[in-house]
Amino acid sequence: MRFLPTLAVMTAFSILAACDSASEPADQAQLDLGMRSGLSGWLTSPDSPSFPVYASTFEGSNGTVELDEAWLIISEFELERAGEVVDCDDGGECESFEAPPALVQLPLDSTVVSQLSVNIPEGEYAELELNVEDLEEDEEGEDASEIAAVLAEARAAHPDWPSAASMLLTGTYTPAGGSAVSFRTFVEAEIEVEITIDPPLDASGVVAMNIVVVPSAWVERPDGTVLDLSQWDWGATQQLLDLEIEMEDSFAAVEIEGL
Predict the structure, then answer these.
(1) CA–CA distance from 183 to each of 85, 93, 127, 163 (Å)?
(2) For the whole model, what pTM was predicted?
(3) Per-domain residue ranges for the chain?
């Protein structure tokens, strides 16, 4: 899930399988994982041809937020197998497969952006775990080199990226009856997402799977207003926006080709 800062093109990386080194290698399947944006209503009407499947403009009683870019640090991506794995060690460690942290740019139009293409052991996978959080706390841990690489990539694209930030949102906020104000807002987000894959992903041959992200959850409030992200513009305030609670539902679902 490595991206060139300007073109956001995909390069492959290896999923780390924590299997017993003595066990025989499993047959491999190719997983092509993509990411796209969606609307919260898409979850209840995914097959409606008249229902828009994405948006970058969000209106509230107090004004309008228009997102231009959304960058995320994916701190963890993991697939959990369905059922038991015969050739696991006593700890059952090869029941899951985990990828290293990565910087991702979320498309805010109808585009589906490929995030990775990797080989994983054949079998059924029933759960996807995905975390978005800052990497600051783990800078001295065993994954220090991977963390340093992701932060270096983020700062190559955005030199002022703070260590405590896990997201960057850019765009404009237009208050009701007022003029548009631009923002570059770094977010200290902590999202832990577990998505049940039902029916399970049958990994054999080549399998395509998309993660649907609902960015409206980042800016729309329960009272009908939208969040004025310009209040946390980094250049003006040097303040991070904390969205830990509000963002738990922002990753909505997975789409598996053929299902």
Answers:
(1) 48, 44, 36, 19
(2) 0.76
(3) 2-256
Residue 57 has pLDDT above 60, yes or no: yes
Q: What does the pLDDT look like over 61-91, one tens digit per residue? A: 999 999 999 999 888 878 888 876 555 554 4
